[in-house]
C-alpha cells in the first residue's frame, strides 16, 4: 500500500497554540521538528554546511523553508535534541530560553547589503531588533505568531509580506513605521531613525500588550488591534521617537515590476529577483524548491558554491556570490530556477509523510498535478493540496484546492481548504484526474 492510499487513523486538525523552535521542538508525524531562527536571515556557508550535517546525522535528512524566512530540521528523535541544540547554540542560533526565542520573529529583506537597488542596508537594524526582542522580558508575552519586518527596499523587497509591524526604508537613514499589513495596506504612524528602530519596536510591543487587554475579544495580531482602536491610539506612546509623515509621503520601493505583476497577492518568482545591479557581477542567485523542501545533502552542496545563503519568505534561497557552476548544480539538485517552472503554481503541506494529521501523500499528489496538468497550471495562479482542512501551507483561497480526509480528497474551486467541495470524496487518482480534466468553463464559472 502506498502512502497516497494510507487510511490509518490520524489525529484531527487542531491548533497547536505555539510555533516550534530549537528550545520548543514540536513533535509531528515524522519526529521532532526544530525551527531555526537565523538573525537577519543571513546564513554563512560554513554554518549552512554544519546545519545540513546535523539534519543528515540526527534527523531524516529533510529541511523545510518557512514563510517566515526560517529553516526547519525534520525527523529528529528525542535523543538527538540535546546534541543538535548544543551545536546550534555554538553557532549563535539559540536564545536564552524558549520564551525569548519564540518572539524573535524578525523578517529582513533578503538582498540587504547586496547592492541590489536598496535605499538602506537594514541588516544592522534587523540584528538590533532581534537582540532587543530576545532580551526584553516584557515582550516575551507577545503572541507566538506576532511578527516584525525590516526592509531596505531593494530588488528582493518585502512589499507583499503581511506582518504586524513594518520598518520600511524611505532613504538612507529613516524608516517608515506602519502597523498590520503589507506595504500597501499597513497603517503608517510615522518615521523613525534607523538607530531608534529597536526602541520603537519595544514601545509598540508594550502598547500592543497593554491595549489589547482593553478590547472585549483581545486580538492576537496588530491588524486586529488597529481595526478595534485605530493606529494613532497604538502609536501614541511613540511620539518622542517618531517624526510625522510629510504630506503625500511614499515609501520608495525598487523593483516595482514585482508589485505590478503580482499586485501584492503573490511573492516574486525566482527569475523575477535580479542577481544584483545591472552591469555588475551577479550578487546572488535565487533558487527555490518544490513546497519549500530540500534535502540536507542539497543544502550542503549549495553551501559549497556560495559565500552565504540568505533565507526568504518565498521559501527560496539567495546564494550570495555564487560560483559560475551554481545554477547548473542547483538544477541537478531539483531546484526551481525560472518562473516558467509549473511547480511554482503548487503548494502543499507535509501530508501523511510528515504530519500526524495527514492521510494522503500531498507532495506526490501535487507533483503529479505539475506533471499532468500543464494547461491548467498555465491558466491559474495556485493549486493547493492540503492534508486537512486547517490549510497550514496556504490557509487562504486558491484557484483549485484539494483537501484531504481519511485518505481521500475533496476538490473545491476558488476556495479555502475545507470549503464546500465541487467534487467530494475522491481517491487520490480520481482527484488527480478531476483536476487534470478541469475546463476553462468550469474554472471561470465558479
Please indicate the count of domains.
3
Structural class: alpha+beta
User: If you average the pLDDT, what whole number results?
Assistant: 88
The fold-level CATH name of the largest domain is: Sulfite Reductase Hemoprotein, domain 2
Adjacency order of strands in the biggest sheet: 1-2-5-4-12
Shape: globular
Q: For the CA atoms, what is the radius of gyration?
A: 22 Å
In the CATH classification, which architecture of the largest domain applies? Alpha-Beta Complex
Q: Percent of residues in beta strands?
A: 15-25%
Which residues sit in consecutive blocks of at least 5 with pLDDT less than 50?
Answer: 1-9, 251-269, 276-280
The helix count comes to 14
Question: Which CATH top level class of the largest domain fits?
Answer: Alpha Beta
Amino acid at each position: 500500500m502506498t502512502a497516497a492510499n494510507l487510511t490509518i487513523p490520524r489525529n484531527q486538525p487542531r491548533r497547536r497554540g505555539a510555533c516550534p523552535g530549537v528550545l520548543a521542538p514540536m513533535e509531528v508525524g515524522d519526529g521532532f521538528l526544530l525551527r531555526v531562527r537565523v538573525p537577519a536571515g543571513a546564513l554563512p556557508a560554513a554554518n549552512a554546511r554544519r546545519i545540513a550535517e546535523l539534519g543528515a546525522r540526527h534527523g531524516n535528512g529533510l529541511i523545510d523553508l518557512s514563510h517566515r524566512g526560517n529553516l526547519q530540521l525534520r525527523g529528529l528523535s528525542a535523543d538527538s535534541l540535546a546534541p543538535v541544540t548544543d551545536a546550534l547554540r555554538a553557532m549563535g542560533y539559540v536564545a536564552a530560553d524558549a520564551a525569548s526565542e519564540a518572539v524573535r520573529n524578525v523578517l529582513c529583506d533578503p538582498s540587504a547589503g547586496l547592492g541590489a537597488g536598496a535605499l538602506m542596508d537594514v541588516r544592522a537594524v534587523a540584528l538590533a531588533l532581534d537582540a532587543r526582542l530576545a532580551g526584553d522580558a516584557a515582550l516575551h508575552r507577545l503572541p507566538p505568531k506576532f511578527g516584525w519586518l525590516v526592509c531596505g527596499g531593494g530588488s528582493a523587497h518585502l512589499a507583499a509580506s503581511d506582518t504586524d509591524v513594518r520598518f520600511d526604508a524611505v532613504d538612507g537613514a529613516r524608516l517608515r513605521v506602519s502597523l498590520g499589513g503589507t506595504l500597501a495596506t499597513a497603517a503608517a504612524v510615522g518615521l523613525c531613525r534607523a538607530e531608534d528602530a529597536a526602541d520603537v519596536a519595544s514601545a509598540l510591543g508594550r502598547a500592543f500588550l497593554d491595549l489589547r487587554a482593553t478590547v472585549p475579544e483581545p486580538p492576537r495580531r496588530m491588524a486586529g488591534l488597529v481595526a478595534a482602536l485605530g493606529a494613532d491610539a497604538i502609536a501614541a506612546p511613540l511620539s518622542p521617537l517618531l517624526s510625522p509623515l510629510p504630506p503625500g509621503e511614499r515609501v520608495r520601493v525598487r523593483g516595482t515590476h514585482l508589485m505590478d505583476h503580482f499586485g501584492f497577492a503573490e511573492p516574486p518568482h525566482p527569475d523575477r529577483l535580479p542577481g544584483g545591479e545591472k552591469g555588475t557581477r551577479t550578487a546572488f542567485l535565487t533558487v527555490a524548491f518544490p513546497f519549500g523542501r530540500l534535502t540536507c545533502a542539497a543544502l550542503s552542496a549549495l553551501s559549497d558554491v556560495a559565500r552565504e545563503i540568505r533565507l526568504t519568505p518565498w521559501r527560496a534561497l539567495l546564494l550570495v556570490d555564487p560560483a559560475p557552476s551554481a545554477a547548473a548544480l542547483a538544477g541537478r539538485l531539483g531546484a526551481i530556477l525560472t518562473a516558467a517552472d509549473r511547480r511554482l503554481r503548487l503548494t502543499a503541506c507535509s501530508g501523511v509523510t510528515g504530519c500526524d494529521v495527514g492521510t494522503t501523500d500531498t507532495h506526490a499528489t501535487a507533483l503529479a498535478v505539475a506533471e499532468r496538468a500543464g494547461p491548467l497550471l498555465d491558466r491559474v495562479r495556485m493549486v493547493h493540496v492540503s492534508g486537512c482542512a486547517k490549510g497550514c501551507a496556504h490557509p487562504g483561497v486558491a484557484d483549485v484546492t484539494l483537501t484531504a480526509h481519511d485518505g481521500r480528497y475533496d476538490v473545491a474551486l476558488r476556495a479555502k481548504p475545507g470549503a464546500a467541495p465541487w467534487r467530494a470524496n475522491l481517491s487520490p487518482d480520481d482527484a488527480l484526474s478531476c483536476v487534470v480534466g478541469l475546463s476553462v468553463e468550469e474554472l471561470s464559472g465558479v
